[in-house]
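Recall that a protein's primary structure is simply its ordered list of amino acids. Everything else, from secondary elements to tertiary packing, is in principle encoded there. The following example makes that idea concrete.
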Amino acid sequence: MNNRGWGLKVMIVWICVLGVALFISTSIAVEKLNIEITGDETINTSTDNDIKEEATSKVDKKIDYNKEYQTIEENMKKAANNYILEMQYTEVDANHLKLDLASLESNSYIDFVYDLKDNTIKCIGYVSVGYTDDKFNYSPFLKCGKNYETKGFIQRNMN
C-alpha cells in the first residue's frame, strides 16, 4: 500500500542533506564575515586589522618577571615556615638555620621551581631562618640560571 507520502528513510536522507548544507553555509559565512563566537555566546565581528592590533597589544604587555620571582620567594618562606612548624624546631634550634630549596621540594613543602623565562632551567636557593622578637624570620634567596638572582644570594650557602 503506497499512499505516495514520505517514508521514514526519505525523511532521514532529506534531514541529513539539509544538515550538511546548513553546516557548509554556516562555515562559509563565518569565514567570509570573520565572525567570532565567544564563550558567553555573544557575537563579535572583527576585521583583520582589529585582530592584528589585539595580537600586537598582547605581545606588548610585558610580564613582570620580578613580581613573579618574588611570588616564588614568598612561597619559599611559607614552605620553610611549614617545615619549621612540622619539625617542631625551637627558637634555639632554628636560629641561623639554612633550608635549601631542594630539600623543601623533595619533602613536598613546595613544588619544584623552574626558571620562568626558560622552564628547562631548575632554580636553586635556600631560606635563611632566624629568630628575633619572639618570632621566626625567613629570608628566601633564589637563583634561576642567569635570568634571576635574589640580592645577597651566596652560592656557598647551598648544601
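DSSP finds five helices and six strands in the chain. Residues 8-33 form the longest helix (26 residues).
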